[in-house]
């Protein structure tokens, strides 16, 4: 979730770096830093603290770099924050340098002193080691030794020059009337630029004053065509909501509607699914749960072999022939490193690939055989909400598309059904009992989420969200697996959140919830059924729908 910003132009760099870092705050971070003309200011904490810098920094130069860091290698401290320096060389870096320990050992022998716990410092020292007055050449020499997925921007004091490199981690260069801007996310610089250059893997950008030159890793010049920038690009605004996440939850229905309706006129290329015998969904985190949802829908309605894979685990496939397989890779950003690595492996073994992304010009879009977009709009909250719902919308439409292709009767996307779904979703953010439930969970240490079928997918995503946002330990289980060990963890007052939205699983789910109630659990049930055959602490009545959730009418018993 780290963010990179850079500026080189005709004006003081500080204001551009500061504003860009503010726009990158939504990505989540624990420390921040800038370097302008060799003056490095960094700290643990928030971007706002940079405003305390004195005029000697704010007016120190017109070329600089900045960074928001989310701790990976080393805890969040001043020492581990970016930029990292070695002599007159300063860099900001996203991604992972896999062989940093080996580099550190070699450079230590050569007299370099390492003070941080980061992999980034190894890159800074390596560039310094090769620097003989030519920053571009030093960066290229260092990149020949670096292994991993990364993007970084390097500068040298008094040179008024930036050198940027991309290897499987996004980096964008834009030019506007005030100078040249760099960022890891277009939202940080879009309104400042008239033209845009997206660095491809293995490309280098050299910025000096207002001039931009591009090179490959062999130092051969590259001609890149500029792309125009939409000046109406979404502003980073909460629009009256307390948080981005609350705003985006309330945009969920629109995200799904825009996604599904956007597919009606433009979908997959003709003949794209010919000779496909099986489908593999592949992703990480929240997007993986969307994969699980898609798998269950296709198995239920299309009746062809379908699998969901965790991208980071797709390393040694059981077969090396995927020539009649379609791999569907889902990624909100299109930049998820593990998903990109899995895509490379799938293509190696002959698979046809489909990318599902929410961001244009992403790395995944560049390499896939076909691309479909979710239309959630920009998502600024760290936890994906509306983008996840849009991914489920894709799964709905994709299942309907497959059924239509195979002449299978299916009514998933009939307008009447969709209208009911949008209406139900639109009321989710207005449920007062949700906030009451949140208040009751506030001081809990553990929570368990239960569901069957599609409800288990919802339970898995809900559990992930609770962990990600609150740091409360939570687990999701298929309700039928309780008796195979997990039930031993349920005791008096244990918080259990259950989902029951599928009529064919109603009786079995009732039995599973009865088991945890018998052990003293406090159960909150999400269901569209007005009555059930047992007592829960709370029942939130929700609209039935293919999503396995929603809310039309809410009752508290």
Keywords:
557 residues; Rossmann fold; eight-stranded antiparallel sheet; seven-stranded antiparallel sheet; 15 helices; 30% helix; globular; disordered C terminus
Largest sheet: 8 strands, antiparallel
Mean pLDDT: 88
- Strand neighbour order, sheet with most strands: 3-2-4-1-10-9-11-15
Task: Give me the CATH architecture of the largest domain, please.
Answer: 4-Layer Sandwich
Oligomer: single chain
CATH topology of the largest domain: Glutamine Phosphoribosylpyrophosphate, subunit 1, domain 1
Number of helices: 15
- Please tell me the total number of domains: 3
Radius of gyration, taken over Cα atoms and rounded to an integer in Å: 25 Å
Strand content: 25-35%
CATH class of the largest domain: Alpha Beta
Low-confidence stretches: 539-557
Separation of termini? 41 Å
From the helix content, strand content and strand pairing, which structural class follows? alpha/beta
Helix content: 25-40%
Tell me the overall shape.
globular
Number of DSSP E strands: 25
CATH homology group of the largest domain = Aminohydrolase, N-terminal nucleophile (Ntn) domain
């Amino acid at each position: 979730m780290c963010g990179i910003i850079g500026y080189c132009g005709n004006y003081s760099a500080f204001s551009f770096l500061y504003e860009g870092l503010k726009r990158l705050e939504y990505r989540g971070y624990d420390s921040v830093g800038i370097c302008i003309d060799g003056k490095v200011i960094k700290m643990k904490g928030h971007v706002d603290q940079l405003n305390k810098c004195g005029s000697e920094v704010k007016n120190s130069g017109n070329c600089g770099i900045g960074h928001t860091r989310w701790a990976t290698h080393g805890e969040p401290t001043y020492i581990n924050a970016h930029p990292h320096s070695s002599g007159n060389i300063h860099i900001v870096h996203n991604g992972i340098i896999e062989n940093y320990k080996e580099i550190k050992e070699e450079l230590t022998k050569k007299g370099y002193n390492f003070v941080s716990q980061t992999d980034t410092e190894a890159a800074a020292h390596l560039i310094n080691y090769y620097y003989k007055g030519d920053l571009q050449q030093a960066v290229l020499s260092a990149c020949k030794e670096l292994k991993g997925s990364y993007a970084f921007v390097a500068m040298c004091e008094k040179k008024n020059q930036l050198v940027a490199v991309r290897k499987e981690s996004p980096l964008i260069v834009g030019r506007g009337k005030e100078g040249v801007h760099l960022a890891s996310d277009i939202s940080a610089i879009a309104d400042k630029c008239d033209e845009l250059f997206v660095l491809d893997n293995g490309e280098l950008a050299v910025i000096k004053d207002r001039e931009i030159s591009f090179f490959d890793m062999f130092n051969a010049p590259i001609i890149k065509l500029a792309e125009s920038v939409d000046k109406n690009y979404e502003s980073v605004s909460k629009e009256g909501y307390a948080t981005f996440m609350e705003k985006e939850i309330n945009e969920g229905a629109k995200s799904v509607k825009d996604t599904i309706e956007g597919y009606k006129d433009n979908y997959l290329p003709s003949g794209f699914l010919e000779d496909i015998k099986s489908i593999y969904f592949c992703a990480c985190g929240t997007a993986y749960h969307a994969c699980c949802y898609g798998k269950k829908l296709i198995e239920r309605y299309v009746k062809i072999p379908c699998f969901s894979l965790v991208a980071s685990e797709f390393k040694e496939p059981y077969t090396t022939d995927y020539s009649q397989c379609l791999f569907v890779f889902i990624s909100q950003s299109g930049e998820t490193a593990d998903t990109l690595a899995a895509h490379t492996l799938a293509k190696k073994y002959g698979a046809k690939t489909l990318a599902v992304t929410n961001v244009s010009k992403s790395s995944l879009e560049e390499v896939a055989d076909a691309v479909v977009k979710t239309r959630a709009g920009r998502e600024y909250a760290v936890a994906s909400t509306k983008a996840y719902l849009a991914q489920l919308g894709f799964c709905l439409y994709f299942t309907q598309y497959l059924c239509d292709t195979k002449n299978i009767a299916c009514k998933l996307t009939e307008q009447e059904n969709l209208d009911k779904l949008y209406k139900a979703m639109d009321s989710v953010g207005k449920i007062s009992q949700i906030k009451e439930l949140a208040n009751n969970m506030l001081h809990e240490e553990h929570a368990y989420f239960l569901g069957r079928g599609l409800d288990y997918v919802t339970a898995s995503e809900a559990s992930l969200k609770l962990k990600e946002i609150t740091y409360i330990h939570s687990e999701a289980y298929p309700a039928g697996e309780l008796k195979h060990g997990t039930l031993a963890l349920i005791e008096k007052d244990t918080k259990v959140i259950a989902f029951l939205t599928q009529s064919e699983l109603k009786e079995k789910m009732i039995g599973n919830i009865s088991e945890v109630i018998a052990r003293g659990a406090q159960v909150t049930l999400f269901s569209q059924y007005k009555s059930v055959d047992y007592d829960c602490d709370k029942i939130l009545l929700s609209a039935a729908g293919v999503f396995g959730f929603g809310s039309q009418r809410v009752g508290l018993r």
